[in-house]
Design goal:
Blueprint: E1 6-8, H1 9-14, H2 16-19, H3 25-31, E2 37-41, E3 44-47, H4 53-56, H5 65-74, H6 80-83, H7 101-110, H8 120-130, H9 139-153, H10 158-175, E4 180-182, H11 183-186, H12 190-193, H13 199-205, E5 210-213, E6 220-223, E7 227-228, E8 231-232, H14 237-308
Antiparallel strand pairs: 1-3, 2-3, 4-6, 5-6, 7-8
């Protein structure tokens, strides 16, 4: 999806958890599989495809959204014209649709755009923007050429360019483990993926595709179609493992609390028993003391009576 087939490791590093990459992914994946990846420099990696994955694997280089489009076309009998460039839309409860909104949405769904893995045009654009100008060119010619580059950069219009950006972000979210990512981390991919728009504004502009959670101090964007009633629809091995680990941690915390409560109850019982034993001891000592004194007094009284007789 990148403009020139390369990506900065820093972008991958900040999104390592969301992408399910190990901490040492540079050595354990990128350097290890040198038939697929090549380090351009210390912080840039390039996809080289020496094994011809593009030719042997039909699913390689195909966006996740295409499987949904195929299903809509084959199972729901929708025309190719309607679904070829469409996205699944799920508006939140209470979403207010202004007059003319449905027509605008329909036109936007039909609007063609350059799909994320189509690199031919991006390569051509990259050559045009990086190719040096001839010194003999006039200012008007330079301005004209710059205008042409900007026009091509928008792929025929601002809406098409924004729609391509939507498709790229949609694919990035589809590649994550839980179909979510902090909004600020997407900004690290802007340069490599050729996204020249404000990402947050773009996400807010399409609430039927993306959902931004503002709970806490970090804004997190979710892929709406991947969730139902707050739960991930399709799980994956990494997600399942993380859920099990979380359940174990929660179970351990609960058992720790229960054990602590049991210890408190046990301590209270021991203290109560000690108090009862102490009371019994005190009562027993008083009775023994009384049993000891009374006979002495009785014997003393008997002696007095005998002497008086």
């Amino acid at each position: 999806m990148s403009v020139n087939g390369t990506i900065h490791l820093h972008a991958l590093r900040v999104m390592r958890t969301e992408l399910g990459l190990p901490e040492n992914f540079r050595d354990s994946i990128i350097i290890k599989y040198d038939e697929v990846f090549r380090m351009v420099d210390l912080e840039v990696v390039e996809f080289i495809d020496r094994n011809g994955l593009n030719d042997t694997d039909e699913s390689f280089g195909v966006a996740k959204i295409e499987s949904w489009r195929k299903k809509e076309y084959t199972e729901n009998w929708l025309s190719e014209f309607e679904v070829k460039y469409a996205f699944p839309i799920h508006f939140p409860t209470g979403f207010v649709k202004e007059p003319g909104f449905k027509e605008k949405l329909k036109n936007w769904q039909r609007l063609p755009y350059v799909k994320p893995y189509k690199r031919e045009f991006m390569y051509h654009l990259n050559r045009q923007t990086t190719e040096p100008m001839e010194p003999s060119k006039s200012c008007d010619e330079l301005a004209s050429r710059s205008a042409v580059v900007r026009k091509k950069c928008t792929f025929g219009g601002v809406e098409r360019y924004e729609k391509r950006a939507v498709a790229i972000i949609h694919e990035v979210l589809s590649l994550t483990v839980e179909k979510l990512v902090p909004v600020e981390r997407l900004a690290h991919f802007k340069k490599d993926l050729g996204i020249e728009v404000n990402i947050r504004e773009l996400l807010l502009k399409h609430p039927g595709i993306f959902y931004i959670s503002t709970k806490g101090i970090t804004e997190i964007v979710f892929l709406r179609e991947a969730y139902s009633k707050g739960c991930l629809i399709e799980s994956n091995p990494i997600y399942d493992l993380r859920r099990k680990m979380l359940e174990l941690l929660l179970l351990g915390n609960r058992h720790t609390r229960e054990l602590g409560m049991e210890r408190e109850v046990k301590d209270e019982r021991e203290v109560k028993d000690e108090r009862e034993d102490m009371t019994d001891d005190e009562n027993g000592w008083e009775s023994r003391e009384g049993d000891f004194v009374i006979p002495i007094l009785e014997s003393f009284a008997d002696d007095n009576n005998d002497s008086s007789d």
